[in-house]
Design a protein that fits this description.
Distance between the termini of chain A: 11 Å
Radius of gyration of chain A: 15 Å
Number of strands of chain A: 11
Number of helices of chain A: 2
Oligomer: homodimer
Low-confidence stretches of chain A: none
Mean pLDDT of chain A: 96
């Protein structure tokens, strides 16, 4: 749960990050930036600001702004009926992005999820993305990201987005953010 | 057919346009910008500079630079076997882009294909895109674009790209550009 004031403050911080990253968006798109706290009520630590540019029945193109050290919690995009699940390419546009997926765990990871949620982070193979660098996750592969010390902006290019069906490792996560006055 | 010098000159003009548009790309990506003359040998009039950022078996994300008044010739992305054909969203990032597809023809279109190729342009419903504005073409729908007086930069977000299978209205078009020293 976040307050409407906190939502608007995060949206404005995202707009500054998008501007620094050279992202071109219309005013009506910026008005609709999603501020997601994943139901955890600790937006500065766990959350994301999401600008959706394309969302068809086939593909999605989104831009994510992460505040400094903000973590987008570990999740996967599952198979669903006839749909193989979302394939997603994450491409850093600005700042530094720490990206984690399956594989050899980093001995000294730069990413730091909130200590009280450490058990909800199970994949620790690290890729540090700087602007222009990217990684592609096939469907159903768990992954999580964290912004660097100045935050980060990243593109998400994917097959059909099915956000509410995403499976998060943390049982406390709720994908839809409740906003209160 | 274009010379290697013309290819490199067009690539450099594209890099300037991409920079003006705030596009973030690595040096190795910029080295691979495709300069396409569509086999017509009149690059300033008919052609495109194409930067591919994502190209998986499922989706593609590209950025197109069009020189001033340069036309990307009319084409469609056909069905192929089990693939419905490429769905494509064109989003203007910089400059002005004139986009044409099926529908009510513009009475006074801004777009001007080369006069000697006028018969290869059959759809004249006009949409003028400024930065942040976009249009989505379903598979198999003919479309063509032209850059404005300062050129244009546009994103192409799509399902799987199958460029060499694109069907061009102009029988003179060859999708693969021959580069000579």
């Amino acid at each position: 749960m976040i307050t409407r004031a906190a939502q608007e403050a995060a949206r404005r911080r995202a707009i500054v990050l998008f501007d620094q990253a050279g992202i071109v968006a219309r005013a009506d798109e910026l008005d609709r930036i999603e501020v997601a706290d994943f139901g955890l009520g600790e937006l500065e630590q766990s959350g994301a600001q999401i600008l959706t540019l394309v969302d068809t029945s086939q593909i999605a193109a989104k831009v994510l702004a992460l505040l400094p050290h903000q973590v987008l919690p570990e999740h996967r995009h599952p198979h669903m009926g006839g749909y193989a699940g979302k394939e997603e390419t994450i491409r850093c546009a600005w700042g530094e992005l720490y990206v984690y997926g399956p594989g050899e765990p980093a001995p000294h990871p730069k990413g730091r999820p909130p200590a009280h949620r450490r058990q909800a982070y199970t994949v620790w193979h690290e890729q540090l993305l700087r602007p222009g660098e990217q990684v592609t996750f096939p469907p159903d592969v768990p992954h999580w990201f964290q912004g660097g010390s100045r935050g980060a902006v990243a593109w998400s290019f994917s097959t059909k987005a099915t956000d509410v069906a995403d499976v998060f490792t943390d049982p406390d996560v709720r994908r839809e953010t409740l906003v209160v006055d």
